[in-house]
Design goal:
The chain has one domain. It contains 12 helices and no strands. 52% of the residues are buried. The radius of gyration is 18 Å and the shape is globular. It is mainly alpha-helical.
């Protein structure tokens, strides 16, 4: 089951990486919160019929605790998505990609500070390689500070918190209904803010495609799969697998937008893949599949 969960997270990283192209299209229109609001709300609507059936089949019941964690996950998701999209207005896409990827480092730090969970030493090596690879991939070795970098850093913190919330709390509840709940909360919050502070964008074919692609695949499908997968994969390891998103974003840009990769960027891709491999090898090397045995304090 752990292997299936890791493969699922790998698939999610591919879809999220390819969705970067769609998000760039929306970014050219200048829409941040309305774009986020529409795609997250649409994703909730798309998943709802499946969630309703799954909820009935499982015999689960909505409780105040269930609703509380749905709301918290949706709120964290809203803040992360809002800061990330807003930050891209003021900084380069390369800087945004590198700084956002720092959530991989933030997760084990947060787990240690608040849950006293210590990561395996091989995981520390994997983090160092992943961050080096993300830096080379996103910036080509040249990093220039921009005002929006602070917004991206704050967004990265909330992406880290979202992964932790899903790994520790969402796994207690039926995954499809939980997915609908967090998507709806995130969408309505983004949409409400956007209608107040943003002008209505021109809904041309490109923007409609970007909304539909991200709503159906990168949000509706992937966030639902992520909740299921993180029942069987610890948050820190899930973050490393999901960090492959930056690799597939660059590959999608190369295939679909004819963007060229410099040699240092290719090296960055290789380092990230090696880091993910090391994060998995620590499980095989220890002969243990259950992360609970690898972490102190559980």
């Amino acid at each position: 089951m752990r292997f299936k969960a890791d493969l699922t997270l790998f698939l999610i990283s591919i879809i999220w990486g390819s969705a970067f192209v769609a998000q760039r299209i929306a970014g050219q229109v200048g829409s941040v919160y309305i774009f986020n609001g529409l795609r997250y709300t649409l994703a909730a609507v798309v998943v709802f019929p499946f969630a309703r059936q799954s909820f009935k089949t499982s015999g689960a019941a909505l409780t105040s605790k269930n609703l509380k964690w749905m709301g918290l996950a949706g709120l964290v998701l809203f803040i992360g998505s809002a800061f990330q999209q807003a930050g891209m207005v003021y900084t380069t896409a390369g800087n945004a990609g590198f700084i956002t990827s720092l959530y991989v480092v933030m997760i084990p730090l947060i787990l240690f500070l608040f849950w006293r969970e210590r990561s395996h030493w091989l995981f520390i090596v994997a983090i160092a390689l992943a961050m080096t690879g993300a830096f080379l991939l996103s910036t080509g070795g040249k990093f220039v500070l921009h005002f929006g970098d602070l917004l991206e850093l704050i967004g990265g913190l909330f992406w880290a918190l979202h992964v932790i919330v899903l790994g520790k709390y969402a796994s207690r509840y039926e995954s499809m209904s939980f997915s609908v709940g967090q998507l709806l909360v995130c969408g309505l919050l983004n949409l409400s803010l956007g209608l107040v502070i943003e002008p209505m964008p021109a809904f041309n074919a490109n923007l409609l495609f970007a909304i539909a692609y991200t709503a159906f695949l990168s949000l509706g499908l992937c966030y639902t799969l992520q909740i299921w997968a993180q029942r069987h994969t610890p948050p820190a390891d899930a973050a490393l697998l999901l960090s492959l998103e930056s690799v597939f974003a660059v590959l999608s840009g190369w295939l679909l937008l004819d963007e060229r990769l410099a040699p240092l960027q290719v090296l960055g891709c290789v380092l990230i893949f090696v880091a993910v491999g090391i994060s998995q090898f620590k499980e095989w090397n220890s002969g243990k599949i259950d992360h609970d045995h690898l972490v102190e304090g559980r």
